[in-house]
Amino acid sequence: MVGSRLFALVAGTAPLVCALPANTPIDIALEHWNKRQSSAPVDRAQAVVDTFKLSWEGYYRYAFPNDELKPVTNGFGNSRNGWGASAVDALSTALVMGEKDIVNQIISYVPQINWSQTDISVSLFETTIRYLGGLLSGYDLLSGPLSNLATNKSDVAALLTQSINLANNLSYAFETPSGVPWNGLTFSNRGNDGDNNGLATVGTLILEWVRLADLSGNATYATLVEKAESYLLNPSPASSEPFPGLLGMNINTTTGQFQDAVGGWIGGADSFYEYLIKMWIYDPARYSTLKDRWIIAADSSIQYLASHPSSRPDITFLAAYDGRTLDLTSQHLACFDGGNFILGGQVLARQDYIDFGLALVNGCHETYTATATRIGPEIFSWDTTKLPASQAAFYNASGFYITNPSYALRPEVIESYYYAFRATGDSKYQDWAWDAFVAINATTRVGSGYSSIRNVNVAGGGGFTDFQESFWFAEVLKYSYLIQSGDAEWQVGGGGRDKWVFNTEAHPVKVAAG
Ligand SMILES: *[C@@H]1O[C@H](CO)[C@@H](O)[C@H](O)[C@H]1NC(C)=O
Ligand SMILES: *[C@@H]1O[C@H](CO)[C@@H](O)[C@H](O)[C@H]1NC(C)=O
Ligand SMILES: *[C@@H]1O[C@H](CO)[C@@H](O)[C@H](O)[C@H]1NC(C)=O
Ligand SMILES: *[C@@H]1O[C@H](CO)[C@@H](O)[C@H](O)[C@H]1NC(C)=O
Ligand SMILES: *[C@@H]1O[C@H](CO)[C@@H](O)[C@H](O)[C@H]1NC(C)=O
Ligand SMILES: *[C@@H]1O[C@H](CO)[C@@H](O)[C@H](O)[C@H]1NC(C)=O
Ligand SMILES: *[C@@H]1O[C@H](CO)[C@@H](O)[C@H](O)[C@H]1NC(C)=O
Q1: What is the pLDDT of residues 436-445, one digit of tens each?
Q2: What metabolic or biological pathway is this protein involved in (predicted)?
Q3: Which of 495, 488, 181, 496 is nearest to 508 (CA)?
């Protein structure tokens, strides 16, 4: 109800039902409405579970075991090699929600996946974060605190065997002269996509492959990714590190040399920085060097990349860069940055990182509240030298303008609200996550599920692309749920050492023993 009401308000097509003066500005109207309608976290958590079940039913009916649902046409896509990406990505969310039937539908399917069977190129990175991360998280949860949810113990064991099978299919990727892997793999002829790889695609493997090494007892999985990571920890040439700890984005897999000095906490670089601190949470004994590099990158980001729009000096964004020249642009994808600073601040007991992270969270919140749909855009800028006249008023009010208005069911803003709430206990962040969830539900819900949309700044979202990304299940719905729900051992920041760490696809992985 709140969802459709919010939609109608923004669209300006329906009168307010609550008593407000006719000319009440929309912000005040919404605030008033939200106050009247504010629901208890328990009801909100249940609303997210209901959305998860509805999404799963649509996928299961029209798309399973293909990779993703096309909700407008009730069709399916196989953008992730046809191994059932949405099913594997949904597993850890079904688990933390306690949805036993869905859990068992997924785990009884996993043994049937044939990793050798695919017609299209395999991305080492995407396969690692979605499939390997999803299976290992399922295994950790079902062989640990949620073992009561599996009806067939052999299916639980198969999650680990299928992880091993998958890694064995992928592992030839590391057979390059340097050990920095190829990312694009053609399984049918052990082919590859050439000798250029990226910072994020190389630097976002280590958590999943090390976890697999620890669970399987085969240390080779760890050796492979640690070798690759070593090139990112000691980047060469020196010019590829324009600010201490902040790197370029393209790496030659033949030489292990960086090719540029372009970067930021943006897509293509992002989760390399994210995993530096997460690996230390995973195992402080083995990965303190990564923590040290995270601190250097975090300090440089605060010193050199923090940027305040001229029209809204109260807002903090992180700029991107080319060498030491800043590019005053950011992205929805980059909005994980606030959450990652907060996480680092919590585990290192550094209030300055938490405070900086909260400022970044606030900036990303502004990208949501400024638009017609109350969903933030894919890419935005605050570079006034390129400000289009058509967006000058928007920029003056909001502190950014939109350079790509789409929304692909991305989680990063809600993800950062989650870390902000877990660190501060401030219910404001639960409210922000609920507002985002309600807005996303109101605008992206269509047909048998939820679809990416074309334009967050027109009422109704400017049209559907008819594509429901698998990370809708893994990330958006999980963080929307966890922020409204009570303590559990997989929740972050529960005091003391975290027992679980979330991979970049939001799959909780149990930290190393000891
Ligand atoms: C989600 O959208 C549907 C359809 O518009 C609506 O019935 C439902 O109440 C909404 N849920 C929330 C939590 O806003
Ligand atoms: C690939 O995975 C399949 C299981 O899906 C397994 O039978 C096969 O042995 C694996 N291939 C390699 C090279 O390990
Ligand atoms: C898996 O796929 C490969 C490649 O298409 C095929 O050769 C193999 O027989 C399949 N394995 C099973 C168990 O179906
Ligand atoms: C349990 O799962 C295994 C595969 O992991 C399957 O072979 C077996 O038939 C299942 N048992 C039941 C009772 O469904
Ligand atoms: C360990 O993993 C590597 C990499 O996939 C594989 O080549 C090797 O056969 C595995 N070792 C054992 C003992 O299974
Ligand atoms: C990578 O380095 C090798 C060896 O120097 C070179 O031949 C190749 O052209 C480089 N690849 C790219 C994409 O620059
Ligand atoms: C935006 O703000 C600038 C600087 O205050 C002002 O010159 C300009 O007229 C404003 N533009 C619009 C469209 O409000």
Answers
A1: 999 999 999 9
A2: Protein modification; protein glycosylation
A3: 488
Q: Is 505 a catalytic residue?
A: no
Average pLDDT (169-195) is 98
Q: Quick check: 247 and 241 in contact, CB under 8 A?
A: yes
Ligand 1 within 6 A of 441 CB? Answer: yes
Q: Is the CB of 117 under 6 A from ligand 3?
A: yes
Burial degree of 442 (CB within 10 A; 0-12, 13-18, 19+):
buried
Distance CA 169, CA 187 (A): 8
Within 10 angstroms of residue 14's Cβ, the number of other Cβ atoms is 11
Burial class (CB in 10 A: 0-12, 13-18, 19+), 512: middle
Cα 512 to ligand 5 centroid, rounded to whole Å? 21
Beta-sheet strand order (sheet of 401-404): 329-331, 379-381, 401-404
Rounded (10°) angle between helices 100-109 and 133-142? 120
Q: Per residue, what are the HEC states of 75-131?
A: EEECCCCCCCHHHHHHHHHHHHHCCHHHHHHHHHHHHHCCCCCCCCCEEHHHHHHHH
Cβ of 19 closer than 6 Å to ligand 1, yes or no, is: no
Task: Reply yes or no on whether 126 is catalytic.
Answer: yes
Q: Has 378 been annotated as catalytic?
A: yes
Q: Measured in angstroms, how far is the CA atom of residue 178 from the centroid of ligand 6?
A: 12
385-440 tens-digit pLDDT: 999 999 999 999 999 999 999 999 999 999 999 999 999 999 999 999 999 999 99
**Which of 83, 116, 186 best tests ligand 3's pocket when mutated (most atoms within 8 Å of CB)?**
116
Count other C-beta atoms under 10 Å from residue 41's C-beta. 15
> Among 199, 319, 219, which Cα is nearest to 271's?
199
Span 45-76, pLDDT tens digits: 999 999 999 999 999 999 999 999 999 999 99
Indicate whether residue 254 lines ligand 6 (CB < 6 A): yes
Q: Tell which atom from ligand 5 comes closest to the C-alpha of 170.
A: 5
Residue ranges around ligand 7 (CB below 6 Å): 392-393, 396
0.90 exceeded by the pTM? Answer: yes
Nearest residue CA, atom 5 of ligand 6?
255
| Tens digit of each residue's pLDDT (9 = 90 or more) over 200-219 | 999 999 999 999 999 999 99
186 CA → ligand 3 middle, Å: 15
- Judge whether residue 34 has pLDDT over 90: no
What's the 7 CA to ligand 1 centre distance in angstroms?
A: 10
Is 252 near ligand 6, meaning CB less than 6 Å away? yes
